[in-house]
Write a structure and sequence with these properties.
Number of helices of chain B: 19
Oligomer: heterodimer
Shape of chain A: elongated
Helix content of chain A: 25-40%
Radius of gyration of chain A: 24 Å
Strand order of the largest sheet of chain A: 6-7-8-3-9-10
Radius of gyration of chain B: 29 Å
Structural class of chain B: mainly alpha
Strand order of the largest sheet of chain B: 1-2
CATH superfamily of the largest domain in chain A: P-loop containing nucleotide triphosphate hydrolases
CATH topology of the largest domain in chain A: Rossmann fold
Shape of chain B: elongated
Strand content of chain B: under 5%
Strand content of chain A: 25-35%
CATH class of the largest domain in chain A: Alpha Beta
Number of strands of chain A: 14
Order of helices and strands of chain B: HHHHHHHHHHHHHHHEEHHHH
């Protein structure tokens, strides 16, 4: 992966993008660059402007101000060249229900350069729809349509792949399969993939870099590892299962252990700074036991950190959707 | 530009898979079939039945009517109408005159009944013509009457024109039967000639000249009728295409047109094609929004105007295809029901005073192209409406409302004599009617109609393309 990262080239370049719909400013000076060989996660609560940005990037919406180029082609001046290099699913994948999956792809293929019959079959094979390609799309399940959508989006070997909420309607197995396909396309075939989502956990599993958008503004763009390690370097939360949480909390009040919170009658959550974590833990355990409180288990509250970063950044907005 | 070709191919591919297209095609052929069945066999059968029934009952009816009038005094009845009836039927009975007799068909029996009831001096002469069954004498009597009347009015030159038809029939021993086309044609020619002479006379006496087009067409009508008589041409397919409509309207021509070509030239199936166009054009843009497939449609490396142009071309191509089916279907079914005897007749015209022959298929082609205009305008209107809406049912509904509402309003304006109604698109769409002069607006002309149509088309297309290319999806 390191080697690919080194030869990365910008594919989608968005600069100073502004968009107003009605009298509401949806996007405020959005700047964004995505590179070949990476999966870029576009993260934000509902209504933050993810879909609007994506729609503008693929020409479904007009832009008020700013510049967008795809694979070096300016979207406004060289619309057709730019779109030739772009594939995507916006909102839900929509197909003509009275045509078969194969025919839908064929219609799409005809408008692009150099898409052969073999390529259509190859792509159908890749998403596992070969056997049902002759069936009318009207009879497909949502998951199958989602897979056909992916097939359509990569059919013409685009350099940029834009997927808006791609895991909607997919079961866990389907989600994993999609994740694997996307990672392979980016890391092995060098596509630049933009995936939008409001699910941090999903981003964490497939993205190399994450951009967080809130109320039409880009708040942060960072590689996922940096984001995780930044989250971890501060503190971690440990959960203590004890016989009397309130008493234990009182005991810990004297220790320099970080913030202590009583979760319920027998659970205690403690923020422990990254440095000297083991020492602090040992000290806490000892204090609880010596204070005549039973300590049953101690566990790390895993992966909650990244979401906390997200919540922090979105000012608690749309917190309910983070899972 | 080859991208537009590909996009059109895609649109056709999508359209072909819709069952509605097949349904429309079948419906169209069914309508053509029944229309031709009606025009061919049924009308013939019906008119045959009527004639048969009539000819069988004149003498029977005479007895009934006479019995009734006898109660009122018979020949001495006080009521003038009763007396007339009495003479009419008693003569019919006495000389065994039936509906198919020239004496009935020429109006001689009527003339005599009137003269006898009024007690005028002609009664004796008419009675003797009836008894002698002398049609030549009747022609001579009519001519003498004309000479007398026009002579007294000081317009003797009109008498010659009015007598032209009688003279011709007299010379060629043609009986005054309404089912003899030569008799009717001779009267048509005579009527045209009379009209010409009266134009001349009016110019001479009052200085008022006649519209040169009308004068020429009237002259042509005379030349053509004379030609048909002299060359024994009963049917002229050109008549079915409204080629001589101005004169026909002016003269009230009675001669027969070709039922074969009438049936083919009629634009009955075209209304249906227009209707289909509303449905297809209505769904072609709005339907994509309704199904959400518009994102599939637009997420391609093709500018929006190209995508919309491809859709528009597809709608027009479909319309042309339907029209072709309608015309060919009409023709084949017409051949099936009426046989091909009249299909090979030449159409006759007058050009610079000479009668020229031309293929009626050229006329059919011309009419076909004119009828295309209406379908194109209808489709364009529906297309514009469709590209403004997001629901195909609504698009179809609005288009229908506009078209039928507009046509109704235009008809009202026509009835109310509001001449400005001719600037509305609905009065101009049917170029066939404009050409035939049957739209109902007196001042309508072909160039005017074309200008109105072009202006509307520009507005429709501009609306469609502007809204579609700017649309936020």
């Amino acid at each position: 992966m390191e080697t690919v990262m080194q030869e990365k080239q910008p594919v989608l370049q968005i600069s100073h993008l502004n968009k107003t719909l009605g009298n509401r400013q949806i996007l405020k000076d959005v700047n964004l660059e995505t590179y070949s060989g990476e999966v870029f996660g576009f993260l934000g609560p509902n209504g933050a402007g993810k879909t609007t940005t994506i729609k503008i990037a693929v020409g479904l919406l007009s832009l008020d101000e700013g510049d967008i180029s795809i694979a070096g082609y300016d979207l406004r001046r060289n619309f057709e060249q730019a779109l030739e290099k772009t594939g995507g699913i916006v909102e839900n994948p929509e197909f003509y229900p009275y045509l078969s999956g194969y025919e839908n792809l064929r219609i799409y293929a005809r408008v692009h350069e150099n898409v052969t019959e073999e390529r259509i079959k190859e792509v159908l094979e890749l998403v596992g729809l070969s056997l049902r390609a002759k069936e009318k799309v009207g009879r497909y399940s949502l998951g199958m349509r989602q897979r056909l959508g992916v097939a359509q989006a990569i059919l013409h070997r685009p350099r940029l792949l834009v997927l808006d909420e791609p895991t909607n309607g997919l079961d866990p197995a389907g989600t994993k399969a999609l994740r694997d396909i996307l990672k392979r396309l980016a890391h092995e075939e060098g596509l630049s993939i933009v995936v939008s989502s409001h699910l941090m956990s999903e981003m964490e599993m497939m993205c190399d870099r994450v951009g967080i958008i809130v109320e039409g503004e880009i708040r942060k763009i960072q590689p996922i590892e940096e984001m995780i390690s930044a989250a971890k370097s501060g503190y971690e939360i440990y959960v203590f299962h004890v016989s009397d949480a309130a008493k234990a909390a009182a005991l810990l009040g004297d220790l320099p252990a970080g913030t202590v919170a009583v979760a319920d009658a027998d659970h205690l959550e403690v923020q422990i700074p990254g440095a000297e974590q083991e020492a602090t833990l040992a000290k806490i355990n000892k204090t609880i036991l010596q204070g005549d409180v039973n300590l049953y288990t101690v566990s790390r509250k895993e992966d909650r950190k990244l979401e906390d970063v997200f919540i922090e950044m979105t000012n608690g907005q749309g917190g309910g959707q983070i899972g | 530009m080859d991208k537009i070709g590909i996009l059109i191919g895609n649109e056709i591919l999508k359209l072909r898979r819709r069952k509605i297209l097949l349904v429309m095609l079948i419906l169209l052929l069914v309508v053509c079939f029944f229309y031709q069945l009606l025009m061919g066999t049924l009308l013939e059968t019906l008119s045959g039945v009527i004639i048969e029934e009539r000819s069988a009952t004149l003498s029977e009816q005479a007895e009934l009517v006479l019995k009734e009038i006898e109660k009122n005094g018979g020949a001495e009845a006080e009521n003038m109408y009763d007396r007339q009836q009495w003479y009419f039927y008693s003569e019919a009975l006495a000389d065994q005159i039936e509906y198919d007799d020239w004496r009935f068909q020429s109006g001689l029996l009527d003339d005599w009944a009137y003269a006898a009831a009024e007690g005028t001096s002609e009664a004796t002469e008419l009675k003797s013509l009836l008894e002698r069954n002398d049609y030549a004498g009747y022609y001579r009597y009519q001519m003498a009457q004309n000479d007398l009347i026009y002579g007294m009015a000081g317009t003797a030159e009109l008498a010659e024109a009015a007598n032209w038809g009688y003279q011709y029939c007299l010379d060629h021993q043609i009986q005054p039967l309404t089912d003899d086309w030569r008799y009717l044609k001779a009267l048509d020619a005579s009527r045209a000639l009379y009209q010409l002479r009266s134009y001349d006379l009016r110019l001479e006496r009052t200085g008022i000249s006649t519209d040169p087009v009308l004068y020429e067409e009237t002259n042509n009508a005379f030349i053509l009728a004379k030609y048909q008589l002299e060359h024994n041409v009963e049917i002229n397919p050109a008549d079915s295409f409204g080629q001589n409509s101005i004169v026909e309207t002016a003269l009230g021509g009675a001669s027969k047109t070709s039922r074969f070509w009438d049936a083919i030239a009629s634009t009955s199936g075209i209304t249906l094609v227009g209707l289909f166009m509303i449905v297809i054009a209505g769904g072609v843009v709005a339907g994509e929004f309704q199904k959400g497939t518009v994102k599939f449609l637009l997420l391609v490396p093709a500018k929006r105007w190209k995508i919309l142009l491809a859709k528009y071309c597809t709608v027009l191509l479909t319309g042309l295809f339907f029209l072709l089916v309608a015309w060919v279907g009409n023709f084949l079914f017409c051949l099936l029901f009426q046989g091909g005897k009249e299909a090979i007749l030449p159409a006759l015209f007058v050009k610079n005073g000479e009668v020229v022959r031309r293929s009626p298929y050229l006329l059919l082609l011309g009419r076909g192209l004119l009828s295309t205009v209406r379908v194109v305008v209808t489709a364009t209107l529906a297309f514009a409406v469709s590209s403004l809406l997001r629901n195909s049912a609504a698009a179809v509904g609005v288009s229908m409302l506009v078209l039928f509402g507009g046509s109704t309003i235009t008809s009202f304006l026509m009835l109310l004599g509001q001449d400005w109604g001719r600037y509305l698109i609905f009065a101009n769409m049917d170029l066939v009617a404009v050409q035939d002069g049957t739209t109902g607006f007196a001042h309508q002309s072909m160039p005017g109609a074309v200008i109105v149509i072009l202006l509307h088309m520009v507005v429709f297309l501009w609306t469609a393309f502007d809204s579609f290319t700017r649309r936020e999806i």
